[in-house]
Amino acid sequence: MTAFKPGWKMTLFTLLFCPILFQMGMWQLEREQQKLVLQQRYDSRQTAAPLDFSDVDWQADDLSFLNISANGSFDNARSFLLDNRINNSRVGYEILTPFTTQSGETLLVNRGWLPQGRTREDIPEIPSINGQVSIAASIYVPLGEAFVLSGAPASDERWPQLIQSIDMDFLEAQLGLELMPYTVRLTQGSIGALTVDWPLINISPEKHRGYAVQWFAMLAALILLYTYFGFKNPNSKKQAEEK
Predict the structure, then answer these.
(1) Residue 82 near residue 171, CB atoms below 8 Å
(2) Is the pTM of this model over 0.70?
(3) Model confidence over 88-103: pLDDT tens digits?
(4) What distance in Å separates the CA atoms of residue 138 and residue 93, rounded to the nearest whole number?
(5) Taking the mean position of all CA atoms in its chain, how far away is CA 243?
(6) Could you say which DSSP state residue 65 is in?
(7) How far apart are CA 19 and CA 229, in angstroms?
(8) Beta-strand relationship, 90-101 and 106-115
């Protein structure tokens, strides 16, 4: 009978990578559940009547996609351009503009998407909304921190400012204002809305499940290879023949 002697290198490799592959598969399953909950919450709130801004508890844990309405005015002189936003295969920006309510609080309003100009230096013209207006929006609570290639964004005194992610502390510092903890996204037809066909989620729950299957398949393949080569180890075969 052939002895099972995979060798220390193969054993070490398997011990190192089996937990990693397992954790990656479980993480994808967790992401799938998060997306399913997100989808259910979105569906349940699509037909709900909007809450007045002053009635929202901004410290609550369950604010995603909550419809709100607010009265106030836009700060047309100061907007942020959220970079590298894709719409129908075109590159552009999402426009985030401060909105001061009648009660004095400031919302950071995502007005939607505008296309990039011919060059990076060709900044799009942002339509102004003057005077006191009423907006309709939904609260956007990100699932996690955005991944950016560079470190903290550099301060820039020019407006509009180009940003790579939404860091509320940094944006507050740039504006010199205290902002509500989350941005709000204008809904279709609201005053000030640009192109607002917001993608609900960037990766569907089904894709996360598919990724999980791939990680678990690699885990199974690694275990099978470890077993196979453990019995096929030339040293193990030689030792068996000598007996």
Answers:
(1) no
(2) no
(3) 888 999 999 999 999 9
(4) 19
(5) 61
(6) T
(7) 20
(8) antiparallel
